[in-house]
Amino acid sequence: MSDHRQAIRWLPQFGSTLRIAAEMKKRNLRKLNSAETTPLGAAWLRAFRRRLLNWYTRHARDLPWRRSRDVYRVWVSEIMLQQAYFKRFVATLPTIADLAAADEQEVLRLWEGLGYYRRARQLHRAAREIVERHDGQFPRDIDSVRSLPGIGRYTAGAILSIAFDQRAPILEANTIRLFARLLGYRDDPKTTAGQRVLWDAAVRLLPRSNAGRFNQALMEVGSLVCTPKVPDCEACPVAMLCTARADGAQANIPLPKPRQRLEAVREACVVVRRRGRVLVRRRTPDERWAGLWDFPRFEIDAANGIALRRMLTSAVANIAGVQIQPGPRLATIKHGVTRFRITLECFEAEYVDAVSGGQNGDMKWLRPAELSDYPLSTTGRKIADLLVS
Ligand code: SF4
């Protein structure tokens, strides 16, 4: 079966087509001929592109990365997607060469609080590859772009279309939802079959020119109008062309994700003090938050009292190679990491002596004020702030 036929074989063409036509009539809009109400048909595509781009002209948000088509800024924005962080990042590291020359610690410090630290490390590695293999120029061919660390099909499409106006499709969370609803795709869009259908739609939707503007318009409608829980169909520029709306199926498309089972975890974090300094270690590449600095942190069971003190002492000896005298509890912080609901109990402790073995990774004794120069996790920063307040 051809890709095209695979893509449309599940479309509830006739019922939806009639309903879309009836809706058009009810709203007294210019009559569409039947071809225009067939999703992904030539006339439907023309109407879709026109409506979408007209809407974007009036409603596009003024986002900092939209003020230029500089490929570096487009790239960073696609990885980062946070206005405040983006501004600070590109102000500090304004070019690919600056990013490549930066220390990983500086990159992680600029990224701190955003999460997904792997993305920051990959962005940094990719900048170095661009300098080494592409003379510092961001490549323009899709294969070279996709071979860079941290750049998949979506990010490559977004960068090449937005920065260079190449006719490259995109598919990310907002457009997955938008396309699934437009086409009435009721199966799971995350499966291989679902991805094939939606990528095929992304390719066919693209106009011959202005691909960057068009892709941004798709993402904008997806994030501002066709929202996950309550899409604003009344304000939607392509409502007349939408199968889910015609079928009243917006709430069921895309297929809701199965609920994730949350798991409660208890962790401890120990601030070991020694002559006005505190002990931090750099998290290793196989750990969560690799590359960030942290106080010795580990999972604890239900122990309390003496059993808990013993556990703190032995864990810190293993992780950091120091013997401690556990002190009072400094704070309890609740936070989430993926499906884990973590209760983090933070303790103070005094350094007693070094123990042999157990030391794992880089260690530093820092004055609390010096912690501001080091990238920490969000909870690590909260603890660091308590130490200087
Ligand atoms: Fe999404 Fe509603 Fe627009 Fe359809 S009509 S694309 S469901 S906002």
Give the C-level CATH assignment of the largest domain: Mainly Alpha
Number of helices: 16
Indicate the proportion of strand residues.
Answer: 5-15%
Helix content: 40-55%
| Class derived from helix and strand content | alpha+beta
Indicate the overall shape. elongated
Look up the CATH topology of the largest domain.
Endonuclease III, domain 1
Distance from first to last alpha carbon: 67 Å
Spell out which ligands are present.
iron/sulfur cluster
Order of helices and strands: HHHHHHHHHHHHHHEEEEHEEEH
CATH superfamily of the largest domain: Hypothetical protein, domain 2
> Which architecture of the largest domain does the CATH hierarchy give at level 2?
Orthogonal Bundle
**Can you tell me the number of structural domains?**
2
Largest sheet: 7 strands, mixed
Unreliable stretches covering 5 or more consecutive residues: 1-14
* Rg, alpha carbons: 26 Å
- The counted number of beta strands is 7
Average pLDDT rating? 90
What does this structure look like?
- By secondary structure, the protein is an alpha+beta fold.
- The protein folds into two domains: 15-252, Hypothetical protein, domain 2 (Endonuclease III, domain 1, Orthogonal Bundle); 263-388, Nucleoside Triphosphate Pyrophosphohydrolase.
- It is built from 16 helices and seven strands.
- It has helices at residues 3-8, 13-26, 42-59, 71-80, 83-92, 96-101, 104-111, 117-133, 142-146, 153-164, 173-183, 192-205, 211-224, 243-247, 305-320, 378-388; strands spanning 263-274, 277-282, 293-294, 297-299, 322-337, 340-354, 363-366.
- Strands 1, 2, 3, 4, 5, 6 and 7 form a seven-stranded mixed β-sheet that branches.
- Strand 5 and strand 6 form a beta hairpin.
- Helix 4 (71-80) packs across helix 5 (83-92) and helix 10 (153-164) packs across helix 13 (211-224).
- The chain is elongated, with a radius of gyration of 26 Å.
- It starts with a helix and ends with a helix.
- The model is unreliable at 1-14 (pLDDT under 50).
